[in-house]
Amino acid sequence: MAEAKIVILGTGGTIAGQASSQGEGVGYKAAQISIEGLLQAIPDLQAQAGGCVLEAAQLAQIDSKDMDWAVWRTLLRSLAELLADACTRAVVVTHGTDTLEETAWLLQAVLQPAKPVVLTCAMRPATALQADGPQNLRDAVAAAAQAGGAGIAGAGVWVMAAGALHPGLSVQKAHPYRLDALRSYESGPSAYMEEGVLRWVGRPAGTGSAESADKRLAQWLSRDALPWVEIVTSGAAQSARAVQALVAAGVQGLVVAGTGNATVHAQMLDALLEARKAGVRVWCSTRCPEGVPVLPASAASTGCEHWLDGWLVPAEAQAEAVGEALAVIKLPPAKARLAMMLDLALPPA
Ligand code: SIN
């Protein structure tokens, strides 16, 4: 049987642009480097393809300000043919940012693909020191592979840029220069690419079967009160005293609003490790007002049936990457506290 493939179609844009010096981010020529040349700049691209074969074709080589019906028609024809091929898992299209929003809308509205079509682009030419094209293209291939494995939820036209996956219908270019130039009005991005792993926003994490969800609901509804969990915040000049006082008072769980990517002051960390030894549940989140902690891809999901799988990364799952660690919860502290209260209310697995 023929192998599953992801096909990458080149159409030009800044992602394929060339300037006379590495510092040049404005005075360059778009659409100069071939799609093969772009792929060669990403040595581990094949590893992002989820076991699919990568194929590439040059459909056009234009600055997208000059996009016209002739190129769109070529693109529509090629995509319709590729999407009808049972071997095609997903298609990636490189494109200029200037009219990306028109092309993305057109492809979604006209083709309504039942497989992922991931457009990508760049705000700096391929020759720039700060070239964003290689990372965007690498992320687009990973997104295509992972969205292809996500069934119907991953189908449709997407735009991958600056770590965010935007819906094709609502994406817009919002800034003429910044690397993070795209927005999706009203909806916001649908997913973020973090260390090669696509984290969907709003999609429930591993929730197991409907039967196990019913059982959990019955267990929660049978409780008159939830276990005692508090949030402690880590910061500069932190001491261990708040943790020690709460443990002495009988707290059952602690969620740490950690610094940055869920890090904890050394003074507080010792007290938390002691608390854990004493049987107190400890999870670490971040005090950053936007986003949730990002972990190495190897710790992304334990693949187990735990109702919080995908949100909760147990300490053991991080051991290889970071050594002794606290469990990390990929939720903001207030939600993490509620999740821990609910989790402590369930009988141990
Ligand atoms: C283009 O749209 O082809 C040039 C500008 C860009 O890609 O950012």
* Total strand segments: 15
Count, helices:
9
Q: In which range does the helix fraction lie?
A: 25-40%
- Derived from helix and strand composition plus strand pairing, the structural class reads alpha/beta
Along the chain, the helix and strand elements come as EHEHEHEHEEEEEEHEHEHEEHEH
Q: Which ions and ligands are bound to the chains? A: succinic acid
**How large a portion of the residues is in β-strands, by DSSP E?**
15-25%
Short description:
The chain has 349 residues and is α/β, with parallel strands linked by helices. Helices cover 29% and strands 22% of the residues. It has helices spanning 35-40, 69-84, 100-111, 133-148, 210-221, 241-248, 266-277, 315-322, 333-344; strands at 5-12, 53-62, 88-94, 116-120, 156-161, 164-167, 171-173, 182-184, 191-194, 197-200, 229-233, 253-258, 281-286, 312-313, 327-329.
